[in-house]
Amino acid sequence: LLIYLxxxxxWRHLLWVRFLHSTTRLNLRLIAAHPDNLGGLGFIEASLRxxxxxxxxxxxxxxxxxANRIFHEGEKLVAxxxxxxxxxxxxxxxxxxxxxxxxxxxxxxxxRGMLSYGAFARAVGEQFEKKWLHRADSLDEDVLTVPxxxxxxxxxxxxxxxxxxxxxxxxxxxxxxxxxxxxxxxIPVVIASIPFDTVMQDAMKLLF
Length: 208
Description:
The protein is an all-alpha fold. It is built from eight helices and no strands. The longest helix has 30 residues, at 103-132.
């Protein structure tokens, strides 16, 4: 049953990868100053959460195989110390690698945005300095009510979004959740492999 579900998920995953690849070949109208720092592709991040069941199943399969060899064949837990690293690498390679298809598109958008918005911000900044920093007369209280300052600040805030553009449409929180979902099945195996007398001795040391 587990193998059937795994192959079924892999088939659907291949369809998803093909869809992402086809999407990157379209003439996407991305906005470099979009607040999601992905040009408007921020909604793609949510799709990574759909990979959590697969990551969990991979963790269950490896944890079960390790548990059989520990409890029935007498192998030590340290023999599987590299297994979590391999599991994390496999999960990231399968689930996250397809999102790198958007890297080229996002890099080009970031480059165009830095050139266009950077030139615009420079022009506005020069006019702002020319108007307010090179005045011979003293400033009065009315300067606090002039909208030039807030307008310039808002513009520079928009331009700063260009520098924060990410080249991979994947959030750190979703990555942590994916890795955590893959490692959770191994926690009971680690706990069960610890000798009971060792657990009791440590518990007694904490209590007394």
